[in-house]
Amino acid sequence: MLRSRTRSSGSSQPASPQQTTVSPERKTRLGMAGVANIFIRMRRFENQAIKPHHIVSASGDPRSHPGLAESACEKKIPVEWVDNFVCVGGVNVATLLRATRGTLLDQADALGANALVDEQWKCTICGPKHRPNGTFKVQIRYTACATRSSQLDPHRPITLDQAKGVPGLMTIIKRNDN
After folding, report:
1. Residue 24 pLDDT > 80
2. Which domain holds residue 156?
3. Using CA atoms, how far apart are residues 94 and 32, in angstroms rounded to an integer?
4. Residue 65 within any structural domain of the chain
5. Which of 45, 129, 168, 178 has the most neighbouring CB atoms within 10 Å?
6. What is the pLDDT of residue 4?
7. pLDDT 10s digits, 32-44
8. % helix / strand / coil in the chain, to the nearest 5?
9. Do 71 and 163 form a contact (C-beta atoms < 8 A)?
10. Domain for residue 169, yes or no?
11. Is 106 within a domain?
12. Which residue blocks in the chain are alpha helix, DSSP H?
């Protein structure tokens, strides 16, 4: 390709390079396999992304109710319970924690214990991202040590002030139905 430069008297600016033209718009057809691959890639990226529609709250380090740990015997049996709930309208985490702790206390009672010490819980709420009916999936993991104590168990979870819920009138649709 030959290029010619013209010089004008007094102008020292070089001529701008020629623009190359791209061939007319090339249309590509996307088959079923190509579309499926796009959806698979999108799903992978979605699964790797941080879930912004999840609400996670936890009690922190293991704690006991005041006076309960001092009056407990030395023998402690670690116990754990995981509850899965499906709720509509909102999520009252305090109510769900009470239900889960009650089940854990029943399990401890079957082991011969009458109190829970060193309690710890974690609650994960999965919001209604793509569910048109507005359901929330809630998982509560409650761990503690079952023991015998001369003091009565208070029958309430620890650090309820750290529980984050979803405002609204909660209706529990399912419990532990996997």
Report:
1. no
2. 54-175
3. 48
4. yes
5. 168
6. 47
7. 888 878 878 777 7
8. 20, 30, 50
9. no
10. yes
11. yes
12. 32-48, 93-110
